[in-house]
Amino acid sequence: MRMLMAGLLMMASLFVNAQDEYPKPSKESLDYNVYRTKVSVPPYGLAKVKAMIAKLTPNDEEIEKLPDNLYNSLSLREKFTYNMIHGEIYSQNCDPMPPVEDEHKKIFAQLPGAFDEYSWSDKQTQFFDNNRDSVIALIKESVTRSKRVGVNYKEAIVSMNAVEIIPFLEEVYLRDKKDHDILTVFLLLMKANKYQPFLASSSFKKLYGDDANYGTHIVYNSANEQLILQRVNDFYKNYKR
């Protein structure tokens, strides 16, 4: 028992020391983290959908799934709301992510997760694929109204491989150039479609090479921004669905 307690105390000490070694981001960096991890909440049947979600309890596999009869009773727009605010599958990340310094000065290789330790089920991603045109239209409608693209919308766009939304996203990005994760969406779309000029670039090797990880990034500056926009526009012009 004493050995167990000593081991636990040592682990706790190591954890505290590791926390002390974490960087201490600026307020601007922390504010940007809040901005980039914000989920867009659609208004369609929102109160009804939230009430349904509030009654869910995880099953033995930690899945919080709306029963099929209730899910099928929802309209398309209500299903859109449900899927955009609720991930059904539990996927715990055991490794805590340390704070990121100067997060607002980076273009990341990957998007942050929309639902913490949960993610979309196959049923939910299938909804996006089966109703692709409607989902894209609803995302555009919501973004036009709110003037922002939530991380859940970005994840859905990448999941659907929605290349056709590139011009719209670029227009949104150029309004204030604040949301650098829109540039990440462009990178992920080019990667998913194996766009050779991008795959052959040094930035691709840096972002998605053998040494890449969840936090891999390139510096946000005018040169990198313009290069991504130029490449994604060339990709879009030559894309054949």
TrEMBL record:
Statement: the UniProt record of this protein carries the keyword Signal:
yes
Q: Where is the signal peptide?
A: 1-18
Keyword field: Signal
Top-level taxon of the source organism:
Bacteria
Q: Please state what the protein is called.
A: DUF4919 domain-containing protein
